[in-house]
Write a structure and sequence with these properties.
Layout (H helix, E strand, L loop, with lengths): L15 H13 L19 H13 L3 H23 L1 H10 L5 H47 L3 H6 L2 H43 L1 H8 L2 H38 L1 H6 L3 H53 L5 H42 L25 E9 L5 E10 L4 E5 L6 H8 L7 E6 L2 E2 L5 H6 L1 E4 L10 H6 L7 H10 L3 H6 L17 H15 L3 E5 L7 H15 L3 E5 L11 E6 L2 E6 L1 H7 L2 H16 L1
Parallel strand pairs: 3-8, 3-9, 6-7, 7-8
Antiparallel strand pairs: 1-2, 1-4, 4-5, 9-10
Helix pairs in contact: 2-12, 3-5, 3-7, 5-7, 5-12, 7-8, 7-9, 7-12, 8-11, 9-11, 9-12, 11-12, 16-18, 18-19
The structure holds adenosine-5'-diphosphate (ADP) and magnesium ion.
């Protein structure tokens, strides 16, 4: 079973409606949502050392054995290359000059032996570097997922899911490349370079120093290119995130896009984003491609100068011809590792900036956590325990006007209380605060005598079941979707919950029954069927506190009647808060709170509020006439 991305509690703000609103805004004004600037972008280069240290400590550390094997294989591969070249000398001498007969067998056997060793070593090198890189990538992905999934809703809402997905896939791939090329390359090139330097020094130390004089220039150019590469690849990755966002919106809004003939419009937006991404990626390609030729140019210049000096020394009798030959050969051979190292700088720059972005995600801390000494919610003993109280609670989302303003509510244990009011008046926000999706700015919320801030989040949410207008179903079987209410529930319990939610009938009627998958987001079910599965989920949860957020307002008359029956069973004996669009469904509520612009403006039972003739009475009459019109 795949793990659902969010907690089993449906989040009201993930509703299709809010996604649609988001889309609508986005379609109307493309590019109004600038990509989230990563924390610590390329400007903070001082952190490179920190990033490497962290990679070593958190990820490479566990892999030291595999990496050591890879390193040994690397040295063997390099050695066998040399041996293959070296065997030419005795081969020519013994076969062609001395004509030793058994050498016709010995030399080919030796070649076979070296080639075999080389094949094994080369496999080891490839396998261990690549598998290590993939393991590290998996570990980074696990850490990212863990950090994302336990983040609070406010922080989650701040970043588009498309961007997160793009980081999960592309930034991580960049890191993998850097590790494969970096770890493998660094070892091999450094070893080769050192060996060749030794050869050069043995021939002539002065010439060696001259040939190294231009090395700082190589370092300078490499660094410049690396910086520009890092900048453009960071922007490229940001644009990849933006593109992923467009893609995920197009896919989740496919019905609306078709219905409103928005295909061309959606394509236009996507093309613009693809073009912008390409621009930065091409810049990165340019820098990456420039690193080898520019190192080559400087290397060539160094070689020319050195040869001139060497020639001058030779003419003055200070340098023997065999020394000169060996020196120049070593120097020219050294160009290859230098050029590879310079490219490596570029790639590791990309890898470091990717790691930086990934660590920024891993380091996100949930803003809502258990208080020190938080205790589990105590509900079982006295009947009063599940009484819910809001005491002068005020709250404001990061953006916008106050959503709740000094709201006080008292929901007696085991009773049904309704929240009514115009849309945007703060009803859903009450649920968000009770579930601690967000924290009130002022005021306290209590369950029984316990302040919810001092209750563990886990026990708080375990004791609350939420049913929203647009239930979130995962693309798994019906049984699994219901069991999210109480993971690990038996098949019998699941079926009992479905019966109580009036869902058993239609489930049995479908071909594979409880094992039928529901499609992405429950696409294969009708709204009423989805809703009854959500109610079965809440039923299975068997929580003492029940929150219904417009649970029936999206339904037609017949499904609504069935869902209402299911709800009547569900609410029995539970502390229930109902948000209802159709006021006819809250007539039997023990208390009705009327909200307007984040304030409680009226409270009482239906009859009292009708007599009072205030906002509730107006809403009710409106509602009634709406109902008649649509009937
Ligand atoms: P209701 O459920 O009564 O229709 P809400 O509680 O959802 O209203 O919203 C109350 C106010 O808070 C509205 O003005 C709405 O725009 C705002 N709001 C709701 N959710 C968010 C959010 N996630 N971020 C910012 N503002 C929000
Ligand atoms: Mg609402």
């Amino acid at each position: 079973m795949t793990v659902p991305l969010l907690s089993p509690v449906n989040s009201p703000h993930d509703s299709l409606q809010s996604r649609m609103n988001f889309q609508a805004k986005n379609v109307a004004a493309p590019g109004v949502h600038p990509p989230l600037r990563e924390r610590g972008s390329h400007k903070t280069r001082a952190g490179d050392f920190q990033i490497v240290k962290r990679l070593l400590r958190d990820y490479l550390g566990d892999q030291w054995l595999a990496l050591s094997i890879a390193a040994v294989c690397m040295v063997i591969t390099a050695g066998t290359s040399g041996a293959l070249a070296a065997i030419l000398n005795p081969a020519i001498k013994k076969i062609f000059l001395d004509k030793v007969p058994h050498m016709l067998v010995t030399i080919p056997l030796e070649i076979m032996g070296i080639v075999l060793l080389r094949a094994v070593a080369s496999f080891g090198e490839q396998y261990f570097t690549n598998s290590t890189a993939e393991r590290i990538v998996a570990a980074v992905q696990r850490d990212m997922f863990f950090s994302q999934v336990r983040l609070d809703l406010g922080s989650l809402n701040a970043v588009h899911s498309g961007e997160i997905i793009s980081k999960f896939l592309y930034d991580v791939a960049m890191l993998r490349n850097a590790i494969i090329r970096g770890v493998a390359g660094l070892g091999k090139e450094v070893v080769t370079l050192v060996a060749l330097l030794v050869v050069m020094l043995l021939q002539d130390w002065q010439l060696t120093l001259i040939s190294l004089a231009l090395l700082p220039a190589v370092a300078f150019v490499t660094q410049k290119l690396g910086r520009s590469l890092r900048k453009s690849s960071t922007r490229g990755m940001e644009e990849t995130g933006v593109l992923a966002r467009a893609l995920s919106e197009t896919l989740s809004g496919r019905r609306i896009i078709k219905a409103y003939n928005l295909e061309d419009h959606a394509a236009e937006i996507a093309y613009a984003r693809i073009a912008r991404r390409l621009k930065y990626i091409l810049k990165a390609v340019r820098s990456r491609s420039a690193s080898v030729p520019s190192t080559d140019l400087i290397g060539g210049l160094a070689a020319a100068i050195t040869v001139a000096f060497a020639g001058w020394q030779a003419m003055h009798g200070q340098l023997a011809v065999n020394e000169f030959a060996a020196f120049v050969a070593a120097m020219l051979l050294a160009q290859q590792p230098v050029r590879n190292l310079s490219q490596l700088t570029a790639i590791s720059n990309e890898g470091l900036s990717a790691a930086n972005r990934l660590f920024a995600i891993i380091d996100l801390k949930p803003r809502i956590v258990d208080a020190a000494g938080a205790r589990p919610l105590e509900l079982r003993a006295p009947a009063e325990a599940s009484r819910v109280r809001f005491e002068r609670v005020s709250f404001q989302y990061e953006t916008g006007a106050p959503a709740l303003d000094e709201v006080s509510l008292d929901i007696p244990a085991g009773k049904k209380v309704a929240l009514v009011g115009p849309s945007g008046s703060g009803k859903t926000t009450v649920f968000n605060l009770l579930l601690r999706f967000h924290e009130p700015d002022t005021g306290t919320i209590k369950i029984g005598e316990q302040d919810i801030r001092n209750i563990t989040l886990k026990s708080l949410r375990e004791n609350i079941a939420l049913v929203t207008q647009d239930p979130i179903l995962f693309d798994e079987s019906i049984a699994q979707n219901i069991s999210l209410g109480r993971p690990g529930a038996t098949r019998e319990a699941i079926i009992a919950a479905a019966r109580a939610a009036a869902a058993d009938g239609f489930i049995q009627a479908t071909e594979r029954g409880y094992d039928a998958t529901v499609g992405e987001g429950g696409l294969k079910l009708s709204g009423g069927q989805r809703q009854r599965i959500a109610i079965a989920r809440a039923m299975l949860r068997n929580a003492p506190i029940l929150l219904l957020d417009e649970a029936t307002s999206a339904l037609d008359g017949e499904s609504e009647r069935q869902v209402q029956e299911a709800l009547a069973t569900l609410t029995k004996g539970r502390t229930t808060i109902v948000i209802a669009h159709r006021l006819s469904t809250v007539l039997d509520a023990d208390i009705i709170y009327v909200l307007e612009r984040g304030r409680v403006v009226e409270r009482g039972c239906h009859a009292d509020l009708m007599v009072k003739g205030g906002l509730y009475a107006r809403l009710y009459r409106h509602n009634l006439s709406d109902g008649q019109e649509s009937a």
